[in-house]
Design a protein that fits this description.
With 250 residues, this protein is an alpha+beta fold. The protein has five helices and twelve strands. The radius of gyration is 17 Å and the shape is globular.
């Protein structure tokens, strides 16, 4: 199978998984979403056009939309081999440890999408805010970075940009003229252990321009990635199904 474009050309302990921990992770999507501003609406299986690379799916995003600011922030985790985005419908994605054949990388990538003008008004660009990604996991992070200035190969475009048709380059060149910025990263790029088991957390948030990473968050979206022992995969799937059924009843 062809490898998706999301591949870049670039000793920590293994955490035991207990049933009590695993079941608690089923609802972690609700816990992490509490940081989203009250005016925002969160969609847990959203569609955002993937403008980076070819063949990447548009679906499976967790998106927080702030209508007051006309601002979309999206995160997802995606299987590097088949492009699937396995999640429990509440912001938690599930993957097995290890690597596929080829480049030695985790089987999944974490990806972000920023759209500062989803209503297509034509006025708001990426350089009207600062955008930060905070991440933490077993042997990975914690760190907080400015995603537009740290990653030098972000893909940029606007609401007319087709799947895989973004342009890559420096934020100083493209952010003033575009309203969409995206990228796909692997934990090994930041020193992560692809065999480590546990829970990874990711937050993408916006602050006022120049406010810094500690400034007031005007928009935020969160997701989690769970990498359990292979024997725990089935248990997690059952727990997620029960959780979703309860949501539907409510």
């Amino acid at each position: 199978m062809r490898t998706l474009k999301t591949e870049k050309t670039e000793n920590n302990p293994v955490l035991p998984m207990k049933k009590s921990m695993l079941l608690s992770l089923v609802v972690c999507g609700l816990v992490i979403s509490s940081a989203v501003p009250a005016s925002a609406a969160t969609v847990y299986d959203d569609t955002q056009v993937a403008i980076y690379g070819g063949g990447n799916p548009n679906t499976g995003w967790v998106t927080s939309f702030n209508p007051n600011l006309n601002l979309n922030l999206s995160l997802r985790a995606k299987d590097r081999s088949d492009g699937s985005t396995p999640n429990n419908g509440a912001g938690t994605y599930l993957f097995s440890p290890g690597s596929y054949a080829g480049p030695v990388r985790a089987k999944w990538n974490y990806e972000f999408s920023i759209n500062t003008d989803p209503s297509n008004g034509g006025l708001q660009k990426l350089d009207d805010f600062d955008f930060y990604l905070s991440a933490n996991g077993p042997g990975f992070g914690p760190f907080t970075i400015n995603v537009l200035t740290t990653y030098l190969d972000n893909s940029y475009g606007d609401n007319t940009t087709a799947n895989g048709a973004g342009v890559e380059g420096l934020s100083g060149v493209f952010a003033p003229f575009n309203n969409i910025g995206q990228n796909s990263q692997n934990i090994v790029f930041a020193g992560g252990d692809l065999n480590a088991l546990g829970l990874y957390s990711f937050s993408l948030y916006a602050t006022a321009l120049g406010a810094g990473s500690g400034g007031a968050r005007v928009a935020q979206v969160d997701m989690a990635v769970l990498v359990p022992e292979p024997s725990s995969l089935a248990l997690f799937g059952i727990g997620s199904l029960v959780f979703l059924q309860r949501i539907r009843r409510r």
